[in-house]
Specification:
The protein is an alpha+beta fold. About 25% of the residues lie in helices and about 20% in strands. It has a 5-stranded antiparallel beta sheet with strand order 1-2-3-5-4, with helices on one face. Strand 1 and strand 2 (about 30-35) form a beta hairpin. Bound molecules: adenosine monophosphate.
């Protein structure tokens, strides 16, 4: 199984501090920041700090501490954004696009945390 990580991708540049971001949460192994082109009132991206291309790469190569940190960071972002049902929020949707058919634009694993209004049908097929 081969994953070619491109260290020049935009999220790698954010992690190195080469381009700015609007940070929502920083943890030992994860970073969350507002999407630059939000598609919902709440649209936050959560990324691992490690060089992982997509979800299956992360699951195969990350250690348990990274995976636990990332999983909890996503939930913490939902709580911070006041969309977590367990904390009285109205709910959210998680999206993680992978590869060509997933229409992944940035080749560094990220989870979109989206909410703030009803998210509509799960997908629109063309
Ligand atoms: P995806 O299609 O799942 O790879 O999503 C990539 C997301 O990254 C899109 O929603 C973009 O709006 C977002 N994005 C691209 N560049 C930046 C940036 N510099 N800061 C924040 N979000 C970005």
């Amino acid at each position: 199984m081969a994953y070619a990580y491109d260290p020049q991708n935009v999220f790698a540049k954010i992690l190195r501090g080469e381009i700015p971001n609007r940070t929502v949460l920083e943890t030992a192994h994860s970073l969350a920041f507002h999407d630059i082109a939000p598609k919902a009132p709440v649209h936050v991206l959560v990324i691992p700090r490690g060089p992982y291309v997509c979800w299956d790469h992360f699951a195969a190569a990350a250690d348990d501490a990274e995976i636990a940190d990332f999983t909890r960071a996503v939930a913490e972002v939902a709580r911070i954004a006041e969309v977590a049902p367990g904390a009285g929020g109205a709910g959210y949707r998680l999206i993680s696009n992978a590869g060509a058919n997933g229409v992944q634009e940035v080749p560094h694993l990220h989870v979109h945390v989206m909410g703030g209004h009803p998210m509509g049908p799960m997908v629109l097929l063309r």
